[in-house]
Amino acid sequence: MHHQNQGMDSRNHAYDVDGGEGKGKLRRSNLSCRELCWLQMFAVLMFGVGIAGGILIGIYAYHAGPESDGSTQCPTLPPQGSQCGNAHSTPSPNVNPKEQDNNEHASGTLGECPTTNPVTGTRYESTVFAPLTTAEMYKAAKFLKDNGVVSTLNAPTSLFENFILYQWLDVPTKTAALDFLDNGGPKPQRHAKVTVQRGQELDIMEYRVGPLDSNVMTINSLNKPGDVQFNSRPYDGLEVGIMTQMLEKDMTTLAPLIAESFDGAKYPEDLVFNLFNGPPSTSGVDRDTRWVITYNGFKGADVDLIHILPLSGRVHNPGSNVSQWYTYDFHYLNQGPYRTASDLMNAYNRNEIRKVKLEKGYKDTTYDRIFPKRDSGQPYRENADRHGPRVYYPSGPRYTIDGTHVKWMDWSFDISGGQIRGPALFDIKFRNERILYELAVNDISLNYAMDSHSQNNIIYADATYGILGGLTPTTIMKGVDCPEHGTVLQTSFWLADTQLAYNMSSICVFEADGQDALWRHAGSSFEAGMRNRYLVVRVPTVIGNYDYTFEFDFYLDGKIFNYAKASGYIQASFWDEHDPKWPDKSRDAFGYRISDYMTGPIHDHMFGYKVDFDIIDRNNTFQVVKWKAGPALEALQTQNASITKAPEYFIYNETRYIEWEKMAQEKGIRKTPEQQFWLVVNEREKNKWGVERGYQIAPLQTGSQALINHPLLKALSFTKYHCAVTKRKEEEPTLTSIYDVNRMDNPQAYLDKHIDGESILDEDIVNWVTVGFLHVPIAEDMPMTVRVETGFLLKPFNFFDRTATFDMPQYTDTKDGSLKESEPLFDQCSEPKTHYCRFC
After folding, report:
1. Where in the chain is the domain with CATH 2.70.98.20?
2. Cα gap 724→501, rounded to integer Å
3. Residue 494 CB: number of other CB atoms within 10 A?
4. What is the pTM of this model?
C-alpha cells in the first residue's frame, strides 16, 4: 500500500518546470487539502474497479467467451498459424473432471454442427455391382425349390436333402458392365450365383439364377453334375451336428479318463468338439475329419480354441449315408493310435500310457482367462477416466452414397462383395478417369504347424467357409470399427443351417483426418502444406476365432492404400510339460509356451487380392522397373548400346541406375532382395512429359511362403507369389476354387493354372496381389491378439503431370505477407448427436 499511495500521489498532482533560480527542481501546484482528499478517494475507487474488471476479463479470455465448453477455442476458424484463448485450460484440481465436463456441456450454448445424410438413393439407382439383398436371395431360393433343384427351404435335417449352401451376386461380364457404364448400353440384369449341396446325387452344383429384376427367370448350371465331388464340399452345421452325436457315445466310454485328467470335466457340460481341423480330404473322393476336445470356456456362447485338450481322434465321414460313418484313431497326449475309445480307455486303466492331471479348479478359471475384459485388479492408467480425442465433421459429411455408389473429392466407386470372397470395389475413378475396374479380396490362406495329432498341418482357405458372412454374421462395432459419424451399409448372407437370409450392417464409410501432413515444406520465405484427409471403406468380418478387417483408403493425391488386419483369438495347442521330446520347458519346435497348458503354434495369414487395373482403358501393360547398381558405362548402355566409354565427369565408376522391362507373358513374381517397382501402364496414354501413365503396386511389409513341396502349393498357389499377372478372362474370375483346398491332389481352378504363357502386352490384364504376415504367437497374444496388419499401396506413377492436390484449399503463408491461404472457415459448433445405424 505504501508504494500504491506514493504512485497515486505522483499521478494526481500537477507539476510544471521552474524557469528561474529554481531551475531543475519540481514545483508543486497550489491545491487545497479537501481537493487532495477527494482526489485520493477517487483514485482508490478507480483502482478497485480496474482490479475487478481485469479479473472478469481474464476469466472471459480464459474460457474463450460465453459459448465455450471450457477449452481454448475461437468463434470462427482463423488463418492457420494464428492463436486465440489461453493454452492452459487444465481444470482446477479441486473440481471433478467428469462433473465439470457435464456442467459445461449442460450450460453451453454452442449449436450442433450441420449434418446431412450422405446416403442419397437406393442401391439400384446407379450401380450394377450392389450385393444381393435378402429379398433377392429368397426369390432365387423359391425359384430353385419350385423347379425341383432344391428339396427344402427349411433347416435341413438329413444329408440326403438338396439344399442351398451359399448365395452371392453373379457379377455381369465386364463387357456388358462397361457397355452400360461408358456407352449408355442396356443395364445388365441382376443374377444370383447359388451353390447347392446335393445329397442324393453326391455332388455340389452351382447355378446362375435370374434375372432377379424380372418376372421371367431361368436357371443355368455353371458346372456339370459330378464335377465337384460331394466329399470336397465345405463343412456345414448339419454334418458337424451328426459327427458330434456320434462322438457322444465315445465320450461316455472315456468319461473316467476325462474327469481324472481334466479337473473333473464332464461332457457336454464342460467340453466341446472342434471339428474344423481341415482339410477333411486331399483327394475329394474320401472324407475324414480330425477332432479335438476343448474346454467350453464361453459356455457355448462363442468359439474357444485356446483351451485345447490332448484328447483327439477321427471320424470317417464320406458321402451322405451316415450309417457308414465311424469313429477311430483315438489319441491321448499324442499317444496312439487306438482303434476305439474302449481301447484307449483300457490302455489308460492299465497305466500303459503317460497321463496328465490338471490341477483342481482349473476348468472353472477358463472364462476369466479368455474373456476380454478390463482387469479389475489393476488401477486405471493415469487419465484413463477421461475421454480420448474425437473427430467429427464441422461442416457435415463431404461424401455421398447413392445406393452403393460412393463419391468423394473426385473419387467415385461402387461397393460390392459376397459372402464367399469378401469385400470388393468396382469402377474406381479419379477425376472421371477409370483407374481400376475391380479391387477385391479373393481368399485367405492359413497353414498351422504344431506338435499335435489332431492339429498338425491344419490348412484353412477362408473362402471355403465364407469370408464375408459364411459361418457367423458380422456387424460393425460402434466406436470400434466405425466412428460415430460414419455411414453403415448392409450386406446379406445365406446361412445353410437355417436356409434363411440375414442382413449384416458390415460396411463403414467415413472421411478420416490423418492429423498429419499429406505434403509440406517450410522454406526461408514461405511455408505451405496440406493436412492429410482420406476416405475410408472398412469391412470387418469374423471367421471362427479370428477377426479380420479389410480397409480401402482413398487419398487426395490419387493413392489407394489397401489393408488387411487380423485380431481375435489364436488357435492354440496343448502344452505337455512332461513330453520328453522337449527339454526346454518354455518352447518347442513350433512355438512358445504362452500359458499354463498352451503353446502358440506358428502359422501364416496370406491374403489374395484381385487387382484389375484399367488405366484409362482396358488394355494395359505390366512393367518392372529394376533398381540396380554397376559401372557407369553399363548404366548408359541400358539406353544406348552404342556408347563405348563413360564420360569423365562421373566421379565414381559405380553408380545406381534403373532398367525397364516389359513383361511379355503371364508370370508370378516374388519380392526379392533386388529392389523393383511393379507398374501397370497404358502405353498409348502419355502425360505432359511423354511418359506412359500408370500406377505402381507397392506391397507393404509382407511375409513369404516358406513351403517347398507341400500339397497346398498347387491348390493355394497364390501364396507362392506376391504379384502375378495374367490375361483377364471371364472364366478365371478368382485365384482359387472354394473346393480345391479339400481336393488338393487334384485342384481344378487355381492361380498357377491361370499362368499359362499367354501374351500380356497391351492386353486387358489382372494383377493377383498377395500379402501376408507370419505369426509366431507370444504371451502378448493372450487372451487377445492385438491388431496385426499388412497390405499394399496403389500409387500414381506418372499418371498426372504434377502433384494432384493443387485443386484443393491448403495452408500457405509467405514471409512478406503477399499470400495467405487456409482451409475454408467454419462456425464453431459442437459434435452432432448423429444416429448410429446398426440394423438399417
Report:
1. 405-475+512-801
2. 36
3. 28
4. 0.85
